[in-house]
Amino acid sequence: MANKNVSVWSSIPFWRRSAAWVTGFASILLVWLTFDSVGQITMGTDADIQKGVTKRVPAPTVINYKIGYKMSAKRGHEVPTIGEKELFFGKEWSPKEAAALLHLGKLTSQSKNCMDCHTLLGNGAYYAPDLTKAWIDPAWQNGGPLQGMTGKNTEEEAMAEFLQHPSQYSTHARMMPNLGITADEAKGLVAFLKHMSSIDTNGFPRNFSKTVETFKAGGSHAH
Amino acid sequence: MLFESFTDVVPSFFGWLNQGPMTLTIFLHTLIILPMFWIYHSEKKKLNK
Prior knowledge:
The complex is a heterodimer.
Chain A: H1 12-41, H2 46-51, E1 65-72, E2 77-85, H3 95-111, E3 119-120, E4 123-124, H4 145-150, H5 155-164, H6 183-197, H7 208-216
Antiparallel strand pairs in A: 1-2, 3-4
Chain B: H1 13-17, H2 21-48
């Protein structure tokens, strides 16, 4: 200890070591976080659904099941539920068929630029209604006005009918334009929306059930 | 609350870490700031020599 008045703050090696430590640690943390996120968002399998294994993103075959939305007291927000089996467009879809249908729906949603007006899983616009939980919107379910206006008996057929001729139906303050969606593409889109509603989004969009209650009490729209 | 019960769907280390606002802060301070005290003192020792 020859010189007690030296300042570490003006020492270049000190700053070099500090910067190396912080940068190195942050890099490792980011790589670790990336792999952690990949694990969180990896799609489940058909077997997971059958065994009741909860996945954030369930397998495409989730379209063969009833999708619900329940308040979880433990987590403090609503959580999607996978219920009993139900036919989708009058049939049960195999894992391969369901995956192909969902893929067609995803490609259609991209080519028709749904996100120009709608929000999907937090991405997009709020010019038109948020579609993240559109499938569990009671307006499209049995007895709901949106299903009623199409004259169809099931939710999926009603949605598919609307998507093919949106400009014939007034569903929102701003009418959806006709995008030339074919019958097959419409089926794919409905499957895409049904699957999306089964994704655990940590309660996004917020207060969905509240808007559903308002709707049931005589309000105009679930969102 | 400083620590809250783990409620995530898929259990993960980061999920646990980010349940409350303090847990992440304490973790990052432990791993980044504490070693910097050591770096500071070891540099001071070197300079004093």
